[in-house]
Specification:
This protein folds into two domains: 41 residues; 102 residues, GMP Synthetase, Chain A, domain 3, CATH 3.30.300. It has a three-stranded antiparallel beta sheet with strand order 1-2-3, with no helix packed on it. It has a three-stranded mixed beta sheet with strand order 4-5-6, covered by helices on one side. The chain is an alpha+beta fold. A hairpin with a 7-residue loop joins strand 4 and strand 5.
Length: 146
């Protein structure tokens, strides 16, 4: 059974968009570039990186919990490079997962679990990433630190 997502975006002043997913809380997207952008929210491409970090980060936390790792803190850092000309797609994305905790087992809940096949499905070569960048076939690299 598939989960269906519905997203509704409404235009606000300038380049501002108010986005609501599945009748949940709304977020504001905006441009950082004047005269139309007012920098009142993340740009759509930044929101994509936030979603990628959030999705894979929740997977990491879920795996660590299943492995009974005592996590006291967790941070995800996403860095990306974009093409200089249109279409300004992401050419490289690096995701760093930083885990804080007590007696963490690097092999028990660590880097071996960061090979997410769903990441390859959600970040296709066409559209957001071009092949050939970074250390992976699609320009996506991951790092795990305890």
């Amino acid at each position: 059974m598939y989960f269906q997502s519905t997203v509704d975006l409404r235009i606000g002043p300038g380049m501002r968009l108010v986005a609501e997913a599945n009748d949940g809380p709304a977020i504001v997207l905006d441009s950082h570039t004047p005269p139309f952008g007012t920098n009142t929210g993340p740009a759509p491409m930044e929101l994509f990186l936030m979603g990628l970090g959030g999705c894979t980060g929740m997977d990491v936390i879920s795996i660590l919990a299943k492995k009974r790792q005592k996590v006291t803190g967790f941070q995800v850092k996403v860095e990306a490079e974009r093409a200089p000309t249109h279409p300004k797609v992401y050419t490289k994305i690096h995701i760093e997962y930083i885990v804080y905790g007590e007696s963490l087992e690097p092999k028990g809940g660590g880097a071996g679990y960061l090979n997410f096949p769903e990441t390859r499905l959600m970040v296709p070569a066409r559209g957001c990433l071009r092949p050939g960048g970074g250390n992976s076939p699609k320009g996506l690299t991951r790092e795990f630190r305890l």
